[in-house]
Every structure is written in structure tokens, then in C-alpha cells.
Fold this sequence. Notes:
By secondary structure, this protein is of the alpha/beta class.
Amino acid sequence: xxxxxxATELTRRVGDKTLFQGISLGIGEGQRVGxxxxxxxGKTTLxxxxxxxxxxxxxxxxxxxxxxxxxLSQTPHFPDGMTVMDACFWHACQDRNDTEEALDLEVRxxxxxxxxxxxxxxxxxxxxxxxxxxRVALANVLLxxxxxxxxxxxxxxxxxxxxxWLEGYLGRQCITLLMVTHDRYFLDRVCxxxxxxxxxxxxxxxxxxxYYLEKRQERIDNARAEIARANNLYRTELEWMRSTPQARxxxxxxxxxxxYELEKKAKRHIEEDKLxxxxxxxxxGSKIFEAEYVSKSFPAGEGREELVIxxxxxxNFSRYEKMGIVGxxxxxxxxxxxxxxxxxxxxxxxxxxxxxVKFGYFSQEPMQVxxxxxxxxxxxxxxEYVDLGGGKHLTAMQFLQHFMFTPLQxxxxxxxxxxxxxxxxxxxxxxxxxPNFxxxxxxxxDMDIVTLQILExxxxxxxxxxxxxxxxxYFMDKVVDHLLxxxxxxxxxxxxxxxxxxxxxxxxxxxxxNGKRKTENGRAEVKTxxxxxxxxxxxxxxxxxxxxxxxxxxxxxQLEKDIETLEQEKTAIEEALxxxxxxxxxxxxxxxxxxxxxxxxxxxxxxxLELSEFA
Length: 615
């Protein structure tokens, strides 16, 4: 295997903080590497160094001669005055005067931009939103056809449909890849090597994310066993070291040296699994909220059609409900949250909110806070402690520790925090308000996987209501019990299940529709063939056609009845699956019945087609 990139003894410090020290790694041809680490440990800094954008304080990075690197940063920038198409060609086309290359690139760019839902390629980059700029930058780096592709949070600002497309695209390409992402399904399906940065050390796992979880736990268990053995021996050796010099003068000097090495091992700290944090949220009554035939749209503007968000939407939210909202970008998911919170007024209808409801809103926008304030002070401004019930409570400092802010980090000024650490702090300020109804808009953006696991546990145990807008499929599967699917043009579908169950249901319906169309097309072809004239234009009266026997005629008539009955049953199941009114158990039963029904229908339809030739 050819080595594309080799990094040796890399060290990087920011002020008095050491992000990483003496780490080495290599990336070989065909490897798809995922990098995992907590926020603030230098993931983005490491990618910048490997991509040649930044320099390490120590160590070196060596690229194989002739290797082309494509890098998607978290916050990409383009030169002023560029259009979308110019940005796609940037670094991607060596010679704009080469007509054949330019035409090929233009066709490919329009295909990729179409998948990423960027329409007008003549628009200036300066008028695009941050999410749109990131998608154009993703298209640009894919069009460069690099030998080594480095991606920093590529799924940010992509909707679920785009993420699934990118997942498939990277899976089909013969490409060498290094990426940072919090999307665990994406990691599992794309990567074949996982690198973990932990305690300034880099660990390598040669497998996907599921393999990493298994082997990481083995590593931690082994480390704990080693520390336990070291502690037992340390206590014995400590007694000897504390004895008088005369008592140990006959001992070899190497034993003293070994003692100090042993002491280092014994004092190593392995992060323990955190206890599940069960916060006693404010009491919430049986009346939560009711959306009474709400409509909302935005009028057509320059280069934009009318955008319909809701059309006579009715929903009665239940107590302790945990709902996910999914849909393509631009279908109005965030607007729906703002309508519920009263930040945007509906065109008609209303939201009736229960008297005991206390919202906690975690928005996509960064929190407004004095950056010269310390982390602990920002949280104490919200509350000094959080109630756990039963007379127990956590102080602000203890609560921050649960969300991975050490006592030392809590004394940091906010301006020193990384983007992910700021999002984590913003989340803490929302949760410290002790709400009983959490509304989270893309909470997984810029969060590390460890924080997401803590948040998942918190939400699973949360004694209140939750609405989540997220493109993180794994997160949604772990937390929500049903979905609102925004389909565009004011259409909202209620689905009783998580995201994976919804996608399985959609694929099943699509497969059923395809089978139905094939059957209908087959019947139409048979009828056309039976009624078509010969090549001379005269009916085929001279050709003697075999007729059905008595038994075949009976079978043919019975098949028509059976097919009609099966199609009615299939229609009923499809309508039930789409209605959003059935239980999860019923969904499971129907999902098992539907493929069997399709197989039976296909078999009978094929036999009907055979007999129909002689009917």
C-alpha cells in the first residue's frame, strides 16, 4: 500500500495549552480515515496542519510526491466577486481555455450542485448563506478529484437526503479520505480506519465506527486493569521507599528508578463512565400545546417562488412526547419552531400553549454573551444550581463538569473556547434554566461524539417534552419516538417511529410502487401485443392461437379475483403506514406482511400474464 501522507512527532500549542504533543500518523492509498476527539482538543487544527494550511510547533508532515490534496474546512471562504460556477471551477480546472475539460467540469458541477440543492450557478457567493457556501465548497473539493480528500464536518448544513447522497458518493469512489464528523452512521458506513485523539495520544482502530466502539472499550478495560495492578504494586514499593535509606541501601538503584515509572502508571486517570444525570424538570401539566389549523407562507421575491411552510396544520402535542422534525432544507423546520415559540407570527390559525409549559430553546444562532466573561460565570448568571429532586441538587460547577468542562476549563474566558466548546456552553445555559419543554434546533452541529452521548442520555431520562430538528440520524434514532416529516409546499406527514423506521417504510413503499407499475406495464404490453396487427397491416387471423383448457380458464378467473383482493390489502397497508395513526407494533407487523404480500402478488401476476396470452 502506497503511503500518501506521513506525519511525525507533531506538536501544537495555543497559548499555555498543549493541544497535542508528539503524535504520528500515516494515511495509505485507499484508506478512509475518521478522526474522533473531544471539542477543544485540536481536531480542526490537526486537519489544517495536515492540509498545509497551518504549521505545527514541532514535527513534520510529508506528502508523497505528486499527491493532490483537496481540503474542505469548517468555514470555507472564496475570493470576492465569484459566482457559484466560478467557485466550483476554483482549483478544480487547470485550464479554463481547455473547452473539453471545462465542459466536462461544468456538467459534473451542475450534477453535484443539483444533489446539494444549489440551483442558480450565476448567483454571487457573497449573497449565499453560510450553509450554502459550505455546500458549494463541498462541490468544489469533490470536483478537484484529489488523491487525498480531507473533510472537516462535511455533513454540517446538509439535510438528510444530501447526507445519504454524499454517503453513497464517497462509498462508490476510489478515494483516500480523512475526515472529522459527528455523524456516527456516516462514520460507520464510509470509514475503514478510526483515529481517536485522547489525552494527547493518538489511537488507531482498523475498522468502522462499530468496530471502534468495541475495541475502544477493550482498550479502556485493559488500561484500568493495568492501573489497578500498578496501584497494588505501588503501595508495596511506597512502603519500601519510605523506609530509611540505611534499610534500603543494599537494594539496587534500578528499583528506585522503576518506582518512579510505576508511580506514573498508578496515577494515570481513565475517564469513568458518567452517571446518568436525571434532572427534576419543572412540573408540566396535561395541556402542552395545540396547533389549531395554522398556515404560514412567505411571498415570492426576487428569483424566489412563494414558500409555503404550513397549510391548515393541526396537531395536539401529548405530555412527555419526544418528537423529531425532518425534511429537506428550505421546507420550514426552523420556522415551525419559531412559530411555536411566538418568534414568528402565523398567517392564520394559532398555537395554544399550556399554562405550565416552560420552554428551553437551543437555537442554531450563536449565543450572545460577553466573551471576556469566564465559563462558570456565564452559567451562574442563569442559575447557581439545578434541582435533581428529593432535596438533591447540582451546583453550576458540577453541572458543567458533567458536560465535559473540567474545573480548570471553567475558569477560561469564553473567547478562548473552540466553536464546539461554545456550542456546549450554550447548551448548558439552556439546560440550567430547568425547562420542562426542550426545543433543540440542530443541536448536534459542531458537537463532539462524547458530548452527543451525554446529551442523548440526558434527553432519554428527561421528564418533560422534547422537539428536535436534526440531520443526525443516529441521534434521532436514540432520542425521538415519532417524527413530523416536512415534505414541502405546506405538506407535513406524521410518522409514528424513529428515522430509521421511517426510511425503511419509505423504501418499502417505493419498492411496492415500482412493483405495481411493472405489473400494470406488463398487462398493458400483453393487451397491445394481442391486439396488434401483423407487419403487413392486416390482423393476424391466419395464426391459430392455443386456447385455455377448462382448468386453466378456472385458474385464470380465480387469479383475477386473488390479485384484486391482494391489491386491496396492499393499498390498505400502504394507507395505514402513511396515516401516522397506528402503533409501532402495528407498523412492525404490517412491514413484515407487505414484502410477503408483494411476493405473492408478483407470483400471481406473472401467472396471470402467462395465461392471458391464451385467454
